[in-house]
TrEMBL record, chain A:
Belongs to the SLAC1 S-type anion channel family. It is found in: Cell membrane; Endomembrane system. Residues 190-201, 586-603 have a biased composition (Basic and acidic residues). This is S-type anion channel SLAH3. It is a multi-pass membrane protein. It comes from Sesamum alatum. One of its GO terms (biological process) is intracellular monoatomic ion homeostasis.
TrEMBL record, chain B:
Gene3D superfamilies: Voltage-dependent anion channel. This is S-type anion channel SLAH1. PANTHER family: S-TYPE ANION CHANNEL SLAH1 (PTHR31269:SF60), S-TYPE ANION CHANNEL SLAH3 (PTHR31269). CDD domains: TDT_SLAC1_like. It is found in: Cell membrane; Endomembrane system. Belongs to the SLAC1 S-type anion channel family. Slow, weak voltage-dependent S-type anion efflux channel involved in maintenance of anion homeostasis. GO terms for molecular function: voltage-gated monoatomic anion channel activity. The chain crosses the membrane at residues 93-117, 124-145, 157-175, 219-235, 247-267, 279-297, 309-327, 333-356. One of its GO terms (biological process) is intracellular monoatomic ion homeostasis. Its main location: membrane.
Amino acid sequence: MENSKQNHLAEEGSSEALPSLIKAITANEVAGFDSVEEHQDFNRRLKSTLVHPLSTSIFGIEAAAMENENELSKPQRTHSVSISMPPSPVAAHLQNTNRVLFGDEETVLGNDSPSSAAAAVSLQTKQAKFYSQPMPKGCALNEAITSGTSSNLPVRNPRIDKLKDKRFDSFKTWSGRLERQLSNLRGKHRESEQEPQPQHRAEFETLPVDRYFDALEGPELDTLRASEEILLPEDKKWPFLLRFPISSFGICLGVSSQAIMWKALASSASTKFLHVSPDVNLVLWLISIALVLIVAFIYALKVIFYFEAVRREYYHPIRVNFFFAPWIALLFLALGVPPSVSQTLHASLWYILMTPILFLELKIYGQWMSGGQRRLSKVANPSNHLSVVGNFVGALLGATMGLKEGPIFFFAVGLAHYTVLFVTLYQRLPTNETLPKELHPVFFLFVAAPSVASMAWARIQGSFDYGSRIAYFIALFLYFSLAVRVNFFRGFRFSLAWWAYTFPMTGAAIATIRYSDVATSLVTKALTVVLCIVATLIVSALLVTTIIHAFVLRDLFPNDIAIAISERRPKTTRRWYHRRSGSSDTKVEEYLKYSNSDSKDSEGSTNSSHKQEMSGSLHKKVERHHTHDGPEP
Amino acid sequence: MGEQVHQSPISVVIDPLPIITSANPQEPVILAAKEAASDSILTRLHAGYFRICLSFGAQVLLWKTLNEHVNDHTNSIHNIFHTHTFPSTAFFLLYWLSLCTLILLSFLYILRCIFYLRLVKAEFLHHVGVNCLFLPWISWLLLLQAIPYTKNFPCRILWWIFVVPVVILDIKIYGQWFTTEKRFLSMVANPTSQLSVMGNLVGAWSATRMGWKESGVCMFSLGLAHYLVVFITLYQRLSGASRFPAMLRPAFFLFVAAPSTASLAWSSISGSFGVPCKMLFFLSLFLFTSLICRPTLFKKSMKRFNTAWWTYSFPLTFLALASAEYAREVKGVVASGLMLILSALSVFVFLGVMIVTAANTDTLLRGNDACLSLPGTKTTNN
């Protein structure tokens, strides 16, 4: 892979690469020299808005990388240079000639002072770094550098080994300074390193949600698109904390809901014939407590040490819903508490548990409502059910504890937002980008909300009345309509988030137990048994799979690509020609294409390249450019 | 047009109607020289001004409800304040003030309909203005409700007079939502659409106060069905934020007003503040909390005074009214405290907006009210 080749090249030291680079660049420079000049000013004007600090060693590496790229794309480049310039391919040409230009500059710098410090990172080079310059495809490191988040990269070439560790600095809390503080506190003597350049950003920009859509694909938005690059090296195993996603809390959800199910099986009247022992509930409950503690501890470490990564997860349109998972898991623990441990729980516990959910809700539902880039028509996906089901679980717990008004409050809020979400997902709006085209286990989340809502309503009302039954039958219908399509659920890569998709099945089983309490018959009893067996089997299968992945395959925690996407999409020339085929040529449009805000390039090229689409997408781009400046959610 | 006769010879040929704040650049604006020259209050008085009357009417109702609360001695908190009753004179003063404002504005608007029918038509065809056309009827219905004895004949006649236009507007507008392509709900939905829903709900509420249960249920079901559709569509934000001018952001508070009104309407239909009413009230409370946690949303609209600021007042008042009903049902410290806080907040906001309006009367009367962008010549595009 070219990517690894680049990195190896970088790691071995760019000094070897430099000599050959000089030769290569000169050849190209001559070819494109004339046409480069006139675009230089344009570049500079554009670049002045997109300044990012860099260091010379980076140039060295990049130069080395480009050397490889040069050879590969040389015919392409010279070809484009020789084309006469209508305004539209200018930008495309710009890219190619920029590469040459920068190679020239950087070669000079690299030659003169390969060991020059940050001082050598002059304004000239700052201007020279053109943000939308297309990076050579395989150069992940360069992309990371140009994105500017790795502003702490040291300048040294010889420090390539340090470079590896430093690459993760951008994700660490306060760019790694916290870690250094802690190690200083511990008294470890750290070798004096080049101080990170002072131009680190005071605050990290939030990634616009479009960026996630553009860069990622897949039902869980965790697969990198082919054209994208990430900030961290793909071939190296990242630190464990960086690989630990928030969706790991799904395990807690899955196991604690099982505890509730076995509690219901043991204690409910209609399942007495099964003679289930309450010990199962006790054991599962203890296991889930342990799991919650472990996962919470690890994630707390991640929050402390890699806060930037946590932020990026928060801005991920799917992962944000998993931020509800810890609190829902705690609610499940409270619901599943074995009778031998405690008969009744204090009401204040409910208030404590619901407060974080309330705050998260205010934030996220407000984002849906106030529009902007995270409006519901755009980001709706089945994982949003996790945001909504917390309300119903809270209502259920509150009603079980005997509270009256609080459960109704959360039930009302949950119901209103569930209706909106349900309709939106059913509509499968064309503007919706996150809904997987094929069936995926995430769809089982559809079953979660109605089943828990039916139980909550039954508790609030005191009996399993018509409202609860309606909700329960909806849940059952959704369950069966997904179950008969089980064939389509094959062929997906296992991920920890799958645990979160098991709790709806368990929830449906528990709701069936409650229903069979009220409408006792052979059918309902059989249904109870079947659903409970299915839920248990699925959880067991998932447990086995998890163990296999953890210990045998050792890829339970793969590199979390989704949080490492770059802020700018690398533009390739091929894409340009494809897009440029039908559009109008204006400088404004070009500027917008290169501009800082969200780009709908993927939408334009994936949907169609009709002229209307182009003007429409341009219009949207203008809009988005404005809305991006609007109130941030 | 006739208005030119009244103007001075020095007529500046610019569009006096407000700057186009609707960010839909694809709709061309044709300046009409004729209408540009007129400068009278009638051209500037659009239906949005009735927000003032609506706020007054809602305040009147709130004071009336709080009065009843104070008289209800089973309320624990008010036992402490038993000396502090709202004086009846203040209540009547407020009522007459509201009534006069409403009569004045209605009269002016009738004049506007007579002389500037084109402008009224433009309002009707605008996706925000059409919803503001419900405001006068809601204001009248609220004031009608505030009258102590409402089951007599003249009040019933008045009710019919005010509700029939609401129903006609309903039929026209709701029908357009799913039949007329240019005015599909997905295109025109904006937070002020909830005003149409509120029109139905207030009609239902006043119907049951009159003693007509069936009409009440009918209007309520109309309102609720369309509220469901509007709520979902608005939450989806299909067409994005660009079509809704930033000056009108206070209209987001209508998210708070609509469920509160529904809660009040259903409580009067069902006779008590049952679980559905509570749920609607809680939803309204949640949305209110959500909005006040986002002050940056309203930053742009606070830069310049416009009548949309009155939209801060009446949703809060409706919420306070619903909380009063809630506190009456659920007796307790928390509920009564909530009612007191919300009522106090609503009174403060009402007084605050009134003071700001008084300070900006020149903007209101002579300047251009920039909240509703209505180039009078948009009729040609529709």
